[in-house]
Amino acid sequence: MEELKNIKVALLGSGTVGTGVYKLIERQREELPHKVGAGLTVSKVLVRDKNKKREGIDPSVLTDQWEDIITDDEIQIVVEVMGGIEPARTYITEALQAGKNVVTANKDLMAVHGGELLDIASHNGCDLLFEASVAGGIPIIRPLKQCLAGNYISEAMGIVNGTTNFILTKMTHEGMEFDEALALATELGYAEADPTADIEGYDAGRKMAIMASIAFNSRVTFDDVYTEGITNITAKDIKYAEAMGCTIKLLGVAKNTESGIEVRVHPMLIPSDHPLATVNDSFNAVFVHGDAVDDAMFYGRGAGEFPTASAVMGDIIDVARNIQFYCTGRIHCTCYKDLPIKKITEIESKYFMRLLVDDKPGVLARIADTLGKNEVSIAQVIQKNKVNDMAELVVITDLVLEQNFADALVEIKGMEHTREISTVIRVY
C-alpha cells in the first residue's frame, strides 16, 4: 500500500483564529486523509514570544523566527492569521515567491494590496486563498469565484460586521442608546477595546472592497469605499423607523451599474420584512443578485474563533487537494475588467432626515422650498413631537442624487429657524 503523503503547514500567528485553526487540524486529524488524500500537520507556528504558553498548541512547534518557515522546503502551505498590513504583506510575498501556497484571513491587507499579492501568486503558480477575510465563517468568496461564476452579478449587499449588528440589535429590541449597547458589546467580547474600525464602518468597508472586486471582476480597494458608521444613530431614530415599518442596519452595498461600480457602507432603513432585517446579534448575511441565479443569500456567524477558523480550514483543504493533483494556482486573480468607480456624490439614494426647527408657521414650507430648489422630492413628512418651543420633523425623500441632497442640507442647516439636524440616514 502506498504510503500516505503528509503536507506540512505553518501558521503565522496564534491568536484567536490561529489557535482555532490549530485545534481544527488536530480535531480533524483522522478525517483529513479521507477528505484530502493526504495528512496535514502544523509543523511551525510563528509567534512573538515562543516561551509564552499557548493553550492547546504543542510548544515544540513554536518559533519566533520567520527564517525557520521560509527556508523550510517541506512547508507547502503558509497560513497568515496575524492581521495588519506589515509584516504580513512581506511574509506573504516572500512565501509566494518561495513557491509556498498561502491562506490568509487578512481583510485589511487584501482590501488594499490584494491585487499585487494575487499577481505574485499567479506568477509563481501558487494558491492565495482568503475566504475568511469576508464574513467570518460564511462562504462567500468561493461561491462568487466558482459556484456563481456563470452569472453576471449586479449587486452584492449585506451585514458584514457582527459588532455593529449586535449593537443595533440591542438598540432595536431593548431600547438601549448607542453608548449603552457598545458597553455591553465590549463586555461580552463582541467589540475590541478600540472599536473604531467596527463602529465607524471601516471593517465593513474593507470587506466590501474585497467582495465587490470579486463580484464585478474589477479591482476595488478600501479607498474606493464610502464609509459611514453608526455612532450617530439613536433609540429615537430606531423608533421612527419602526413606525415606518423599517429596521436600521449597517449595510455594505455594492452595485454594478451601467455608469460604474457603486460601493459603500452606511446605516440604512430597510423594510422590516426584508430578509436582512431579521439578521440579528453578531450574525452576518450577504445578499447577492445574479442574472442567472436571481437572488441568493448567505447567512451565518460572521466572526469568532471557530467560525473564522472554519473558513480558513476550507481554504487549507482546497490548497491541499490542489497540491495532491499538481494544480495550485489554477484560479488566479479574476479582476480582468477596469470599471469606473462612482463617487458617493454621483449615487442616488432615498433619505430619512430628522431635525429640530422653531415651531412657527411657514418653517416647513421654507424647508420644502429649499429641497425642491435642489431637485429633492419629498415623499413623506412626519411631525409628532414638540421639544420646548421647537418642532421635531422627520422628512423622507424620494430617490435623489446625493450631491443635490448634500447641497440642500447645507442650506437647511444655515436657515435661521433650523436648530439642529439630528440624524440623516439613507433608505433602501
From TrEMBL:
Residues holding NADP(+): 12-19
Any one GO molecular-function label of the UniProt entry: NADP binding
Cofactor needs: a metal cation
Entry EC no(s): 1.1.1.3
Signal peptide: none
Matches recorded under CDD domains: ACT_HSDH-Hom
Positions that bind NADPH: 107
A Pfam family annotated for this UniProt entry: NAD_binding_3
Catalytic reactions of this protein: L-homoserine + NADP(+) = L-aspartate 4-semialdehyde + NADPH + H(+)
InterPro entries hit by this protein: ACT-like_dom_sf, ACT_dom, Asp/hSer_DH_NAD-bd, HDH, HDH_cat, HDH_CS, NAD(P)-bd_dom_sf
GO biological process terms, semicolon-separated: methionine biosynthetic process; threonine biosynthetic process
Binding, L-homoserine: 192
Enzyme class: oxidoreductase
Record's protein name: Homoserine dehydrogenase
The species this protein was found in: Anaerostipes hadrus
